[in-house]
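I am still getting used to C-alpha cells and would like to learn alongside you. To get us started, please write out a protein record for me. Start from the sequence, derive the C-alpha cells from it, and show both lines together. Once you have written the record down, we can walk along the chain together:
***
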Amino acid sequence: MSEFTVGEADFLLDGRPVRLLSGALHYFRVHEEHWRHRLAMLRAMGLNCVETYVPWNLHRPVPGGHRDVHALGRFLDAVREAGLWAIVRPGPYICAEWDNGGLPPWITGEPGTRVRTRDERYLSSVKHWFHRLMPEIVPRQIDRGGPVVLVQVENEYGSYGSDTGYLRQLADLLRAEGIAVPLCTSDGPEDHMLSGGSLPGVLATVNFGSHAREAFAALRRHRPEGPLMCMEFWCGWFDHWAGEHVVRDPEEAAGVLREILECGASVNLYMAHGGTSFGGWAGANRGGGAPHEGPLEPDVTSYDYDAPVDEYGRATEKFWRFREVLAGHHDGPLPELPPPPASLGRPAEVTLDGWASLDDVLRALGGEETVAPLPPAFEDLRVTRGLVRYEVDVPGPRQPYPLTLRGLRDLAVVYVDGERAGVLTEEEPRLKEPVAGPARVVAWVESLGRVNYGPRFGEAKGITGGILHERQYLHGVRARGLDLDAFSDGVARVPFGALPEEGAAGLYRGTAVVRGAGDARLELPGLTRGFVWINGFALGRYWSVGPQRSLYVPGPVLREGANDVWVLELQETGPDRPAPRLLPV
C-alpha cells in the first residue's frame, strides 16, 4: 500500500517526489481484448500513468438500469497489471468529443432541469450515478493497492459556468463516496476559466496544445504553490465529417512536450491512443463566427486524434519522437514494444443477400408511436442515438406552399406521398419544391451527434420547432423512434427480403467469410450514410462526405468462417454499388 499526495511543489509517493507522465486512453473506445496491448504501448513510449474518462450515458443510456459499469473496474485492474498508475475523470460531464459530453439525454432533456449547476434534480441524478460508479474506483485507489492516484472533479467547468458551489458539492460527494486520493480540476489557461473552474484546496491543472511556459504562468497567478500539470496536452486533434483530416507535425509536438517537462511539470498526453467512437457515440461541435454557436460540425467515428499510437494500435512517427523525449526522464532503458495484434489474413468481400425497408425495420425494432400536436424530440421518445420517423398530413385541397422542418436537428430525408422530395439540414430546412394538399409527408430525422462542448451543450434532437406549411403549423404529428441499441440483439425480428432493384435506403444483410481473423478495416464503396454492425458489434457511422473512408474492425469482433454484417443505409446507394470489403490494416 502506498500514499500519493500533493506537496508544495511536487506530487509525492510515500513522501518522495514523483512526476506523472500520463497518456489518455479511453477504455470505452478500445475493444476490451486490446486493452493490455494499448497499455503496453503506453509503457513502451515512456509513460508511467494512464488517464480515462467515464461516460455516464454509455453506462446508463435510459432510466431504469445500468449497463456494464464493471468495465471501468476491469480496465483499472488491467492498468495495475501493466504497471501503470491511473487518473480517473468521472465527470459527470466529460466533453471528450463524446455524444452529449457524456450526460444521458434523458437528463439534459428533462424540462426544467439545469445541468452542471446545483439544480436539485440534476444533483440527485448525479448522486445516484456516483453511488453506483464509485465502487469501481474506491477499492482500486493506490492506498488500497490499486493504480488510481488522482480523481478529477467535473471537466473544464470554467469554460462553461461559474457555479463553484456546484464544484464543491461534487468534490464533497466524491469524498463521501470514499475517494481518498487527491482531487483535481482541469481548465484552459485563462483567468476566467481558472477562476470559474477551480476550487480552494483542490489541485488545479491546465489544458493546452502549445506555449507551455505562458500556460503555467497563468496557472501560477491563481495557484502560487502545488505541482504543475498539463492535464491535457493536445498533441493532435479530432476530425469532423465533411472537413479535413487534421494532423500535427511530430517534431513540433515533441518540442512542446519537451518544453512542458523542462518546466518541471507533469503531463497527460491527450490522446496517447484515441481509439474509436464505436456504436454511434461520436459527439459534435458548433462552429461559425460566434463561439460555439454556429453550424453543427459532427465528429467522425474514428478518434485516431493523430495520436502517437494510432487507431489500429500502431506506433507512429510521433510515438518515436515522444519516446525520445520521455526516455530522458527514466532510469534505464524503456520497455520494448509489445507484439502487435493479429491483422486480417486476407481481404474478404461482404456478400449482401437481404434487404428490409426502413418502415419494416421500424415496425420490428422501433418504439411505440406517439401522436402529438407538435413533433416530439428524440429525448421525449427516449432515443439516445438513431433516428425518428415523423409523419404528418397536409390538409387539402390547398395551393402548393413551402414546407419547412423548423428547428431541425440534424438531418432529414423527406418523402411526399411516398416519393423522396429532398434531404434537409439545420441550415437548409425547407424543401425546394412546394407541397400541395392533400398530401402525406414523412421525414426520417437522424441525430448526427449531440453537442459535447460550449453553450449549446445539451440541446435537443429531432424536429424541435414544428412542421410548417407556408406559415401554418401542421398538427397531429405521428412519431416513432428507432434507437441504435435495438439492433444489437433484435435483428432476427426484421423481415428481410430480396435486394431492391435500385439502391434504396434500408437495412442490408450480408456475410463475410474470413480466413485468418484479425484487425481489419471495412470499406463501403457506393454507400452514402448509415451504420454498420458485424456479428452484433456496432462499428459506428459511415458517411461518403469523408474525410474518414473506412471503419476500423477490431480483430476480436471477427471469427473464422462466416461473419454476419448489417448495413443500415439511411439515404441511398450508388447505382453500380461495389461490394463492401474487409481489408487488412
